[in-house]
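User: Hello! I'm new to structural biology and keep hearing that structure can be predicted from sequence alone. Could you demonstrate with Probable transcriptional regulator protein, TetR family? Please show me the input and the output so I can see what each looks like.

Assistant: Of course. The first part below is the input, the amino acid sequence of Probable transcriptional regulator protein, TetR family. The second part is the output, the predicted structure written as tokens.
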Amino acid sequence: MGRRREFDEEAVLKGAMHVFRKHGYQGASIRDLEEATGLKGGSIYHAFGDKAGLFDAAFRHYNRAVLEGRLERFAPPGSDLKGVRELFLSLLHEPDNGSLGCLITNTAVEFGGNINTHPRVEAALGLLRSTFRSRLGEPSTSDRDADEAKADRTAVRLLAFYQGLLVLIRGGEDKASLRQAIEDEFNQLETLL
């Protein structure tokens, strides 16, 4: 029978998540992770197998707590395009006015070019794409196939815009300019849909 974990897993994963957001996978040292989690290296390895295991658990925590939480709060089912607009605007207000960036975006950039992307990146991007697509609503004309294709392209465009915003925010771009870009995009979308 294995030993029972004697730490607050939620707090450990939150601390590790912030380290990986700030430093990336490669840049996060075991010392950084020890300081952020309150665990010693041996305990990290015992609980999560290795740094990759902790990264995967922290990423799962990020997708559940941050991404899914943000979607539920700002763009729940039935919120239509207005909810998606609110979701985009929420990106401009990171807790504590920080700019650690998005773990999904940061990981996609760090591991981009690999033949196999990280499965949690794929899952998160898929969730965003499908959320955008579902909030665009049902086709309104008799040419259902053309409308579906247009909605799919719009969802991909929104996904690219969303990820681009996160990169610009991490890079320190002026948030007032980004807010205006979001408003312009959604004002234009409203006239097209």
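User: So the tokens describe the shape?

Assistant: Right, they're a compact way of writing down the 3D structure. Reading them back into a model, for example: The mean pLDDT is 88.
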